[in-house]
From TrEMBL:
The lineage of its organism: Bacteria, Bacillati, Actinomycetota, Actinomycetes, Micrococcales. Belongs to the YajQ family. InterPro entries: UPF0234-like_C, UPF0234_N, YajQ-like_sf, YajQ/Smlt4090-like. NCBIfam families: PRK05412.1 (NF003819). This is Nucleotide-binding protein SAMN05445756_0815.
Amino acid sequence: MASESSFDVVSKVDRQEVANAVNQAAKEINTRFDFRNVGASVELNGDSLTLKASSEERCLAVLDVLQTKLVKRGVSLKSVDFGEEATPKASGKEYRLDGVLKEGLSQETAKKIAKQIRDEFGKSVKPVIQGDELRVSSKSRDDLQAVQRALKANEDIDAALQFTNYR
């Protein structure tokens, strides 16, 4: 048996699930009566999402449809960033709302997670930042599972977390 166990904390987005959610949202927008003749649409281009409608309220309704589809497909809403308030901006005769898919842990988020792990578990668990992910290692697998539970319970982390490479 290995003397030390570890796992990686990452923030990745399943792009196929996001594309499926966007396609489902576009289908629903095209068939719903309340979206007729308002120019409502949702598009995915690479890492960016664009929502359009003729009024601010309809644009927010498109956002609600998209968020519902993302949740049903198992994509965390923390992985899509529409800005602070998510308010549509007027662009000519239409309102637009632009969002970005967030992947990878930022340095400040990784430092925040590492500090939380060190504060709660002391020296029995060692977090190490490796680029856009965080490796957590310990001699006890029970400690590692406790770290996972603690990170899942923390609502202050502004990233969709996944745990990979559990060894």
